[in-house]
Amino acid sequence: LDSGTPGIDPVPRWSREVAKLRAQTSRARRNAASRDGEVAEAALETCESLLRDLAGAQLECERLQARVRAEAAAWERLFEVMPRACLLTDGAGVIVTANAAAGALLNVSARHLKDRELLVFTRDRDAFRALLQRIGRGAEEEVAGSLAVRPRERRMQQVDVRVVPLSPDSGMWLWFFSSAVDAERSDERGESHEARQSQPEQLHAAD
Question: How buried is residue 201: exposed, middle or buried, by Cβ count under 10 Å (0-12/13-18/19+)?
């Protein structure tokens, strides 16, 4: 413990060691703080990048949702105005939605057909149940048949029906109805189209 200098108290060796240890600890803390700062900065940059990606994904999702809504609205308008009677039902034949032509066929407004059983508008319920059984088996992509429908307060009509799934495994079915009146109108449209097509030839021959 002798300092080598007379009249001056010697400095204990353990004090010098403590001072060194404190200096090392201080340097270690500064280094750790520097490393922590670098890690924090890298983490912040990663978070900012993820937030930018998330914002971009959200914008893309909103764009796709808007496109889906627009396409759904277009299909709904097409469904509503199509001249052929069309119904959407579940697998048990309960009406989910109907277009205006279906309402006219059954003499019930389309909005009042919702949640009603299609069965109540048929005369031959066994034939209707047979169609439902064929639908339930799911072995056919399209089920076709003939039904006698009973419109409200009107006489019975015999109609051809075609049933197709709304989408695979959806459990929802689209019913398309064609009556004799529809067939006559289709024939008339075909004849009218043929007549218009032949008019230029007739005019040319007259010239």
Answer: exposed
Distances (CA, A) of 169 to 3, 51, 136, 141: 94, 37, 11, 12
The first and second tokens of residue 37, run together, are 């700062």
pLDDT of residue 196: 53
Q: Contact, 138 vs 167, CB < 8 A? A: no
Q: What average pLDDT does this structure show over 172-192?
A: 65
- Coarse DSSP helix, strand, coil percentages of the chain, rounded to the nearest 5 percent: 60, 20, 20
Tokens describing residue 170? 């959806």
CA end-to-end span of the chain: 136
Q: What does the block give as tokens for 78?
A: 């097409």
182 burial type by CB count under 10 A (0-12 exposed, 13-18 middle, 19+ buried):
middle
pTM for the model stands at 0.58
What b-and-e string marks burial along 72-107, b requiring 16 or more CB atoms within 10 Å of the CB? eeeeeeebeeeeebbbbbeeebebebbbbbbbebbe
* Burial of 118 per CB tally in 10 Å (0-12, 13-18, 19+): buried
Q: For residues 123 and 121, what is the distance between their CA atoms, to the nearest angstrom?
A: 7
7 or 119: whose pLDDT is higher? 119
Dihedrals phi, psi of 94, to nearest 5 degrees: -85, 130
